[in-house]
Amino acid sequence: xxxxxxxxxxxxxxxxxxxxxxxxxxxxxxxxxxxxxxxxxxxxxxxxxxxxxxxxxxxxxxxxxxxxxxxxxxxxxxxxxxxxxxxxxxxxxxxxxxxxxxxxxxxxxxxxxxxxxxxxxxxxxxxxxxxxxxxxxxxxxxxxxxxxxxxxxxxxxxxxxxxxxxxxxxxxxxxxxxxxxxxxxxxxxxxxxxxxxxxxxxx
Length: 203
Hints:
Blueprint (H helix, E strand, L loop, with lengths): L11 E6 L3 H8 L10 E6 L9 H5 L6 E4 L10 E4 L5 E5 L3 E5 L11 H12 L3 E5 L8 H9 L3 E5 L8 H9 L4 E3 L1 H8 L14
Parallel strand pairs: 1-2, 1-7, 2-4, 3-4, 7-8, 8-9
Antiparallel strand pairs: 5-6
Helix pairs in contact: 3-4, 4-5
């Protein structure tokens, strides 16, 4: 996996966040260019008992299409998918979306770890993972898995996070992740390009 000469190269992006996440995502997701043909999968910890308004918030602001993930739905290019409240979001071979009501992981459903690990299994070195502000350790193991599969991994600079525990946990588990401010991360994804599959890959 390479950042390329003009920006990162990735077939798909996974993003995890919790406390302060809406504000962080408002800085990051609109930066993805309309020309990016990959998919972006997002887990934001939300109250389980209330419907998500994320599509309503982000669709008018993003160049890519914004949808709430649905079970057994083929992954569409150029689309941002949010995990629905109270369901784990997984990526299956195809690639295809899968929703699960299995037990919470790190007290969370949807779990960032579940998304990142399943996406790493499918996309391998074609995946780019980002952990943003949050108040739990969810995502630390998943981001480590993305890196172990050859993907690019980034965390928000802790001093710029509304809640720094999540990014600090990711760095403590695997110190090799690149650390960037939210502004720098937005600049990074604004130049993202598509990674073409190599011979023998499913994606």
